[in-house]
Amino acid sequence: MAFRMGVGGGNASSGMGVAEHSVTTFQELQRKKVHRYVIFKIDEKKKEVVVEKTGGPAESYDDFTASLPENDCRYAVFDFDFVTAENCQKSKIFFIAWEALWEKGGKGLLP
User: Fold this and answer.
1) What confidence score (pLDDT) does residue 14 get?
2) Among 20, 87, 94, 108, whose CB has the most other CB atoms within 10 angstroms?
3) Per CATH, is 17-98 categorized as 3.40.20.10?
């Protein structure tokens, strides 16, 4: 996974940019295994994707899900470690689009 949008600038189709800190934090998760997960949010004023929270390497998926807001949307990456049937240690990075469920009339993405 790579951030393809211009750092700090807007994307031609969305007008949304990606903060430099977001890119470097993702690279720390991907290359250095410094983080178990990174939660991103959209800063409406700056019109860019920013880091909201990171989880240390010892944190679990339960820690990650507990960090997601109940009433707002977020984007996240989670580094999942597992062992294959052949007893090989593997790691996969998952991109997650978190959409909270709201009642009708709320500001959620569901109708």
Assistant:
1) 72
2) 108
3) yes
